[in-house]
Design brief:
Largest sheet: 7 strands, mixed
Structural class: alpha/beta
CATH topology of the largest domain: FAD/NAD(P)-binding domain
Helix content: 25-40%
Number of helices: 14
CATH class of the largest domain: Alpha Beta
Bound molecules: flavin-adenine dinucleotide
Number of strands: 20
Distance between the termini: 20 Å
Shape: globular
Length: about 450
């Protein structure tokens, strides 16, 4: 325990978006914070890569439009990383009738037959009731809507087209998950009261972790090996022991059972049962002529190919006609495992060939390509949030244990969710330390 007169110390495990949000909140409350990150740089999945001299984010941040945590944090950010949010209005959909523009409005998709308006009214009342932002204080809220997949929800209220032409493309392209296997809770949290999707793309967000790390002081390349019972500190990979008054664990669900010695049976079951996926994308730098029709292009080819679509992540500061374009080729979530077994060269070659259907100019225009892999992504299957609710309730029964878990998997597959849960974990730690109002 902290000697009288000294600042309490909180240890944060992991410097992804969640860990950094927690550390920032604790730091501002006057607590001594030590952040340990096993990788050589901070940011976790929110990181920047370099290709052909251009910087880009392999998993660019698309969040629900109402992203209060991100907006607030951006306004307070040290170093002004220049993060800009763009509202996503539409994307391009290629099909038998050529390339079409698809808006994010669900209305156009509703069943063209019997009870059409009753179904839409029901879908709208569900969307309006749930609210259009992830609520970190109640990640398990409305658990009874965590009972169907996105595809089932569309079949009931919005029509199969809404799934095939709107939800499935966005879920696959942006978050790497399948509509047929994802809880409807996720897109419901991103809908406004008229049941339309509201998403925002955050440009240059990947620069923020570096700026925050400089302000907070993150120990990179230092993995935490195990926590002390009750959250009294942790052992690092070099065998040293760091004392603390509380610990925030922002290291992903798979790491938790190996780190925390005093999980209850229910918690262990939750963390070990958290379904995860692998992500695979090909980043391509191309001559300027390889311009897709929209920032997002989806390729519904009946599942025959591996390509889900293209994300144009050319930095906007490169001007209206930049010299080069930066494109991310996204793999269909159901094809990732199978494709992963191939060599990088083969994956890049196959994906570029398939992408030519959406951007014919790509054939001659590719300058460089790089395969990006990620594992341990939260899958958000049906029932996920009910399990989150159980784990939360279980943790609240252990007030003597000062260990607080956070990460995107508590709220949603995006940065806003990670920030929200990190901030909430910090507030719980402050509360336990008697500093809640600081
Ligand atoms: C395919 C894909 C698509 C995505 N799409 C979007 C999107 O459209 N919109 C959006 O906003 N976001 C998107 N992201 C997700 C977004 O990047 C994440 O939601 C967010 O960054 C998760 O942050 P986190 O802090 O919860 O986890 P992470 O970023 O995974 O951070 C966990 C950190 O803990 C560290 N760690 C693990 N074990 C230890 C240990 N023992 N000791 C110390 N450190 C440890 C890890 O190295 C890592 O840095 C996407 C990600 C992927 C991969």
């Amino acid at each position: 325990m902290t000697p009288p007169g000294e600042r309490p110390r909180v240890l944060v495990v992991g410097a992804g978006a969640a860990g950094q949000a927690a550390a920032w909140e604790l730091e501002r409350a006057g607590v001594g914070v030590s952040v340990f990150e096993s990788e050589r740089r901070a940011g976790g999945r929110l990181r920047r890569e370099r290709l052909d001299g251009l910087e880009f984010e392999p998993w660019p941040a698309f969040t629900p439009s109402a992203a209060p945590q991100l907006t607030a944090l951006r306004d307070e950010w040290p170093g002004e990383p220049g993060v800009v949010g763009h509202e996503l209005e539409s994307f391009a959909l290629s099909g038998r009738r050529g390339m079409r523009r698809r808006s994010l409005h669900t209305r156009a998709s509703v069943h063209p037959f019997f009870l059409r308006w009753a179904r839409l009214a029901r879908a709208q009342s569900i969307a309006g009731w749930l609210g259009s932002e992830p609520d970190p204080a109640h990640p398990s809220r409305h658990a009874r809507l965590d009972d169907r997949s996105v595809r089932e929800h569309c079949a009931l209220y919005l029509g199969r087209n809404a799934h095939d032409e709107l939800f499935a493309p966005l879920l696959a392209l942006l978050f790497g998950v399948r509509g047929a296997a994802t809880t409807r809770q996720l897109p419901l949290m991103w809908m406004d009261a008229a049941a339309n999707l509201r998403l925002r793309w955050w440009e240059r967000l990947g620069e923020a972790p570096g700026e925050l790390s400089r302000a907070i002081g993150v120990h990179t390349g230092r993995a935490v090996r195990a926590l002390q019972p009750g959250g009294r500190g942790a052992w690092l990979d070099d065998g040293s022991l760091v004392d603390a008054d509380a610990v925030v664990v922002a290291a992903g669900p798979r790491a938790v059972p190996g780190l925390a010695p005093d999980l209850t049976h229910v918690e262990r079951e939750f963390f070990e049962g958290c379904e995860t996926l692998s992500g695979l994308r090909v980043a391509v730098s191309a001559e300027r002529g390889a311009r897709p029709p929209e920032r997002l292009c989806w390729s519904p080819d009946g599942g025959a190919g591996d390509l889900a679509g293209i994300l144009d992540v050319t930095p906007t500061e490169a001007g209206p006609e930049p010299e080069r374009r930066l494109l991310l080729l996204a793999v269909r979530p159901e094809r990732v495992e199978r494709l992963s077994e191939r060599s990088d060269e083969r994956i890049a070659e196959d994906l570029c060939a398939q992408a030519r259907r959406l951007v014919p100019a790509l054939g001659q225009a590719v300058r460089e390509a790089s395969v990006l892999r990620e594992s341990g992504l939260p899958a958000f299957p049906v029932g996920h949030f009910r399990r989150v609710g159980l784990a939360e309730r279980e943790a609240s029964r252990r007030p003597e244990r000062r260990v607080y878990f956070c990460g995107d998997y508590w709220v949603g597959p995006h940065v806003e969710a990670a920030l929200a849960s990190g901030r909430r974990a910090a507030l719980k730690a402050l509360d336990a330390l008697g500093l809640a109002s600081a």
